[in-house]
């Protein structure tokens, strides 16, 4: 079977393989960090940034005080806040200074990356190791036929949604109840 004949099946198989590599302890820690933070700030660049924005939206739907770094309505980060950075390489030039500044301020920094040994990973208080790019293939089992960082970005979105489900269960919150925070000026 050619990839083009059933691309969705290939993608789903890759996602299953990648998900099997996730460390449940790291995901639990991430959920606990979100629930114990004063405020949550998310950052990412490119498509990874879009996945982090999607995560921020779901956190907002839950009633969590959340901000996307770089937006005009984003407040200042402070001690006790949580900065979550999504970066496959962990070396994104615009994100490295954010991690360093957040550390200096006394905020907690979490990195969602495939490179825990990266600059952002080393500057983080905790790392959620995600699989997912062709560069990743030589060292890890999460190989992919998808272009560039697609697998990483997909697993980043899924991890965000899995954390949301965990928080919903902990707070005994239903998806229906979350609609009260959904945008109503659309």
TrEMBL record:
Its EC number is 5.3.1.27. GO terms for biological process: carbohydrate derivative metabolic process. Pfam families: SIS. Keywords: Isomerase. GO terms for molecular function: 6-phospho-3-hexuloisomerase activity; carbohydrate derivative binding. Belongs to the SIS family. PHI subfamily. This is 6-phospho-3-hexuloisomerase. It comes from Paenibacillus endophyticus.
């Amino acid at each position: 079977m050619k990839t083009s004949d059933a691309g969705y099946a290939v993608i789903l198989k890759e996602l299953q393989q990648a998900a099997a590599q996730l460390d449940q302890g790291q995901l639990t820690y991430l959920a606990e960090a979100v629930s114990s933070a004063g405020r949550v700030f998310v950052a990412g660049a490119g498509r990874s940034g879009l996945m982090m924005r999607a995560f921020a939206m779901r956190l907002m739907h839950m009633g969590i005080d959340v901000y996307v770094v770089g937006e005009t309505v984003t407040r200042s980060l402070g001690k006790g806040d949580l900065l979550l950075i999504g970066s496959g390489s962990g070396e994104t030039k615009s994100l490295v200074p954010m991690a360093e500044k957040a550390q200096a301020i006394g905020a907690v920094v979490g990195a969602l990356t495939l490179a825990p040994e990266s600059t952002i990973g080393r500057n983080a208080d905790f790392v959620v190791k995600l699989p997912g790019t062709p560069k990743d293939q030589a060292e890890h089992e999460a190989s992919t036929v998808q272009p560039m960082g697609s697998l990483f970005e997909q697993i980043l979105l899924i991890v965000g949604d899995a954390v949301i489900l965990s928080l919903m269960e902990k707070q005994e919150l239903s998806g229906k109840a979350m609609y009260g925070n959904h945008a109503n000026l659309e």
